[in-house]
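Why do we bother with holo predictions? Because pocket geometry can differ from the apo form. Keep that in mind while you read this record for adenosine-5'-triphosphate.
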Amino acid sequence: MRLSEFILVNMEAILQEWEDFARNIQPSHRSMGVVELRDHAKEILEDISAELASPDYKRNLDSDGNTPAQIHADTRVLSGFTIDQLLSEFRALRASVLGLWSRREKTATWFEVEDMSRFNEAIDQALAESVARYTEAQGQSQDIFLGIIGHDLRTPLSAINLGATYLMRLDDADSKLIQLGSRMFTSAVRMQEIIDNLLDFVRSRSGLGLPIHPSDVDLAAVSEHIADEFRISNPGTTIRTEVHGDARGRWDGSRIGQVYQNLIGNAIQYGENTAVSVVTSATDGEVVLSVHNDGPPIPAAMQKKLFDPMQRGISGEVHSSNRKNLGLGLYIVREIVMAHKGVIEVSSTEKTGTTFTVRLPKLTA
Ligand SMILES: Nc1ncnc2c1ncn2[C@@H]1O[C@H](COP(=O)(O)OP(=O)(O)OP(=O)(O)O)[C@@H](O)[C@H]1O
Ligand SMILES: [Mg+2]
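The structure, written out:
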């Protein structure tokens, strides 16, 4: 008997063997019924059997174009299966078919060998589809989770912000209370930045890129405003700003504000109390923003991947202070710059210090 037919004739026995296995590995907090447990194994096997029987077989897809292996992965993500458990289910499916077959078909023929290798290929294909879908679905649910946390943290944070501002501005309070308010305010601003970065990261990873809404803005005002905010929260650091030429044009002002904010924030954090200088130079066609600090340079190897997400200085070696950071700032800066059709580069040496340079073309309406 050919393997395609064998699978159909012995479906019940194969499923039973597989079910016994799958029941053993199911997440302990779930108790699934037999129907749910066998869910798509039968359809996966029917699909494979039809494919073995005829090379021109058209895959059995649901109305949304999903294969049984993809649908299976979706349900496994929802049931809390780990990727290892999903993989072992496929191993079990393979073993129960080939085990039963070799026990019943005693005579080895050329067809048998051929069928077995085609069956293995088909299982591998189903496995690859399932794993790809599982990873995608899990990534999406993580993004949704991050998005919700980030979003929901904003409201309590703004209450802390308000309280801190109130303390900072108390006229007759003792200086310790005002200092406490100021420290709370700086921390709340930092938390807000981390949350904003996280939300932008999730948004950009969804494949849509970062949305920008250009309007008429003056980058001289934007840079001055952001630098002033940092001067308040970092009174010990000198922040120089310079503007050359007419820096008015069409960009997304709050997004470019984020660029200044991340670059200046990094310069203060990693420049080890050296002065920070922020230069905005405009010509007819473009504006060049540069943010400079001295202090330990960024190692050459690290400069190449600086703009990738989750890249932080080598802990303990370069900047031990950045363990609390997510390593998303420069990734988001680059996304914003790219959305404006601009470019960003970095130069960092012991002698000349670290300078991030952003070139933004003046967008036309
Ligand atoms: N101006 C700078 N001087 C020296 N090193 C820098 C500078 N800017 C960035 N770096 C290095 O590049 C790494 C990546 O920076 P990035 O802003 O992307 O992430 P982060 O600051 O670690 O975290 P986040 O910005 O998400 O809070 C930093 O951890 C730091 O090691
Ligand atoms: Mg940063």
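The beta strands are 215-218, 239-244, 248-251, 276-282, 286-293, 343-349, 353-361.
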